[in-house]
Amino acid sequence: MSTVDTVNGPVALEAIGRTLTHEHIFTKNPEIEEGWPDPEWEGEDAMVAKAVDTLDELKTLGIETIIDLTVPGLGRSIPRIQRVAAATAVNIVVATGYYTFNALPTFFQTHGPGLMVDMDDPMPAMFIRDLTTGIGDTGVKAVMIKVATDEPGLTPGVERVMGAAATAHLETGATITTHTHAREFRGRDQQEFFRSRGVPLEHVLIGHSGDSTDLDYLRELMDNGSTLGMDRFGMVSMRSDSERVDTVVRLVELGYAEKLTLSHDAGVFSINTPPSFRRRESPDWNHAHISRDILPQLRERGVSDADIDQMMITNAARILVGAR
């Protein structure tokens, strides 16, 4: 695979460059916001302009690509992201999947084998269409498949999403990238599930692994084949940056640079954790934090530029290619 599908179309793999592998631009909830507008949403044009400014700053800091993992369940709007992508030189890659910690919307509870609308499960075909034809009528193709397993674990709804993700991976080769609850070791559950569905674990990126400092757990996941997302730098409510840096340093020293990616899980706007909350609780939780603050700390601790390029360029390119 010599190209990667971005919002603006295919880009040569070698031009993907330094990449933030788990980010969001806008996290929204249209049903809530239509009736009860969020006072911190500054309007469509203003927020698109703010997103463009954010990405333009990343470009000056050496970031060439971000992977926006805002999927259905988080208010994905590809037309809005197209407006941002058209005005910035940073590549934006988007994902398919469904984001839930537990139950699915009523549509999925009524459509499927043995349900009220008795039919094949529509979810795998939805994911596959996003990856192969495009999302809606936008022509924009998803590249990754996003799933989530949080504290409730493998609920029936979550298992259904993960099963659809496994089917879509086996059909398309797209990498599956995950949200996990590190304290409950949900990465293990995800690996066991995907292994049982025939998904090679080297094509599963276990997200939010930097929330854990348990090196035995993290090494187990990598030794099983998966890449880890050390992807919440700045989110100090879950783990301090000093602990996150220490974990990355230790794992690089142990020879695992080829199995790590770096990112923030940050956003320009999120209705779930609005800007005022982020400024108060995690003031460094933004898309420029790794470039400005974390990479210097890693270098001071002995992580080489070659290791940084491995994590942010080589590994990122590998997960974008997947098994295709």
Automatic annotation (TrEMBL):
One of its GO terms (molecular function) is zinc ion binding. The modification N6-carboxylysine is found at residue 146. Keywords: Hydrolase, Metal-binding. Zn(2+) 2 binds at residues 146, 179, 208. InterPro entries: AryldialkylPase_Zn-BS, Metal_Hydrolase, Phosphotriesterase. Zn(2+) 1 binds at residues 22, 24, 146, 265. SUPFAM superfamilies: Metallo-dependent hydrolases. It comes from the Bacteria. Its cofactor is a divalent metal cation. Binds 2 divalent metal cations per subunit. Belongs to the metallo-dependent hydrolases superfamily. Phosphotriesterase family. This is Phosphotriesterase-related protein. It comes from Nakamurella flavida.
